[in-house]
Write a structure and sequence with these properties.
mainly alpha, 13 helices, 2 strands
Amino acid sequence: MADLSFIRRRKIQIYLLAALILLCCLMLVACNADTSTNVENVSKPTHFMAKFMDKIDGLLGDGVSFGWTVVLFTVFLRLILSPLDIWQKIIARKNSKAMERMKPQLEALQAKFGDDKQRLQQEQMALYKKEKYSTLGMCLPTIVTLVVFFIVFAGFRQTVGYQFAMDYHDSKAVFDASISQQIEESAYGDANGDGVFNVDDVPKTEEGAEFYSKSVDVAQQKVYDSYFSKEKTSVRSWLWIKNIFVGDNWYQAVPDFATVTGQSGFATSRLTGLTNDEYKLVMGKVLGQGGWGKNGKWNGWLLLPVLSVALSFLSTKLLSKAQGQPPAAPAGGGGDAQNQSMKMMQWVMPVMMGVFGLLYSGAFALYMFTSSLTAIVFQLLFNLVGRLLDRSKGRAPRAAKR
């Protein structure tokens, strides 16, 4: 590594630091990666981010959309992380000021040493060091954002899995209670004398099969009425999204068996303790209902994924502008490679947000949207305060002369 130029060594250090932080982040996610839940013994999520959301949800009370819980959670999280955010913006502001001072000198260096790339890099790095321009500070906001992104994502995975488990657990309780009540009120009663009214009391005859079929139809209707009751739909729905725990996309509003057990798509939960036949039996009249489009299967309109990408691009653009960029280097120069690596880092979050917003829950897409929107507002306010400070400092010498 001693034979490498200063810029190349610095780039390697940046990438190694990014890899180390991401590895630590993935380890944190892995420690809380088990989203499997037994529907017969549903317990609350254990991830600290999921617990944080649960506390906020409890403060809002019953019947409030979980979407508003996500909005408040995001704002609170941004406030908690605001000291780090402010520190990052101070680094960016210092970089911007340093770049304003260095730009004429950097252009002069490029004109003088344009044919000697190694010497040009050495002179540039010496100037960066002299002016205290932080090349690492340009990547740091993206790296920190990635760490927070994955940690929060793990919390949302557990929360979504818990909601799916509770939905089925409550639906099965309604279904079983209805079947039991119908058998108790029928002529069959407790036919086998075990003190429990269930399908074992229904004779295996044509008449018994017809009775059971009608009982199932009644029980499924009760599940439908319970699942789509005002109290429960008010928690799941948010503005145009029918079920905030399902993606704001073409997925159906009520997840099917493959989705809740993690067998299809990008799994957000893994329910255990049920079979496909049991799930279809209990949720028979609920599946494929409650959404938009043909047969009501679409859960959302793809708005949150699109808005998340757009706001993320805008946020990274504002941050990049606030930091100040080096002048364009000659083709093949080390500075040009550095600029390209910075641009690549600025694309990471928007692309990732697009993928996660499209393929995962609407709740997580709403988190990304709210987080980007909050970051933009905060950046604009920070820029405004910075301009006011610059103006006050610019007037101070003139006032002193008077």
